[in-house]
Amino acid sequence: xxxxxxxxxxxxxxxFIKDDTFGTYFITELFxxxxxxxxxxxxxxxxxxNLRISLDNLNFKSKKLKIFGKHLxxxxxxxxxxxxxxxxxxDNILYKKEEIIEILSKLIHLSNGNFMVSxxxxxxxxxxxxxxxxxxxxxxxxxxxxxxxxxxxxxFRNKKYYLNESLIYMDFKSHFYNEFSNKKYIEILTMMxxxxxxxxxxxxxxxxxxxxxxATNKPENFNMDALPIGEVIMMNEETKxxxxxxxxxxxxxxxxSVLETHYKIELYDAIKESIKKNDRTIYQNTNAYKRFVAExxxxxxxxxxxxxxxxxxxxxxxxxxxxxxxxxIAQSGAFILYGLTDIDDSCDNLLExxxxxxIFITNHAFIRKQLEMLNINMAVMFPDMDHxxxxxxxxxx
Length: 397
Fold this sequence. Notes:
The chain has 397 residues and is α+β, with helices and mostly antiparallel strands. Helix content is 34%, strand content 22%. It is built from 15 helices and 15 strands. The strands form three sheets. It has a seven-stranded antiparallel sheet, with helices on one face.
């Protein structure tokens, strides 16, 4: 819906934008003359054609931007005014989708607390700001090409993968038995992840620039109908909650990959019931738990069940890994390791990291050129012959 804003002798077309991801805004049309609008406005929708504007209740903060050589006022709203979705933005309204994205990326700080950037300079400014805000926490970064992607490992994106996890794991190990016979569960999972097999690992990085590269790196066969916006999620965690590659907890969670599906389901249900009834014997008396202990003790012979807290299997953990291959070294790689979950529910919200900040990435092509100037490209991020050859070819194309 397009409205008309009258202020003294000036009339401007204006519109509302509301989105759960990007926030709520009141945006005027472009105009040539620089005028001074009130810094604070309270705008209320009366009906489809009328608005009430007041200076008494200060709900909107204005910020003047110079875009396309003209002046534009953007007012970010704290309260919801008008609902709409992406499909409602078409060529017949005041701004096209691409123009709205450009406007929001100039704001950087979105009205709902998220961020949107269109250059490395703006991105590093946000990262510096957040590092100061969370200076006592450790930071992990996850970059993906589309802001609609969720924090879900590949294993849980396809039910058939989850139902056959142990078979996938053992099949892979059997093909390279001489190489993997003495490897730990997490080492084999990491190698499977390296070759893009479905696992309970989700890639993260200790480097914000690596995450930025991933947010501009279009996946193969990407055909999702979404706005051209990537995302970097900055996860800030207390040191005590971070686990390492060879920790006992990492072994406990990684060993779940070898358990047959019916045992994982039985163990998950038994642990949930034990927590609810505060009775440890419920899960301890199941065949699933006995199978789990048998698997764990093959790697941890001195596993002491009296110290075992079953809730640790339900909460994903940030894992710092060893520098076991060139890709992890190049990408300052880390992982989120997921444990037991209800396959019929989304595990997107299971990660109980201290805080999560969302930084939306626009202007992908320009940022990729900036990253190339810093020697951050496909050949560096994926230091194998196939990716290096592809990177060289693209550079000259």
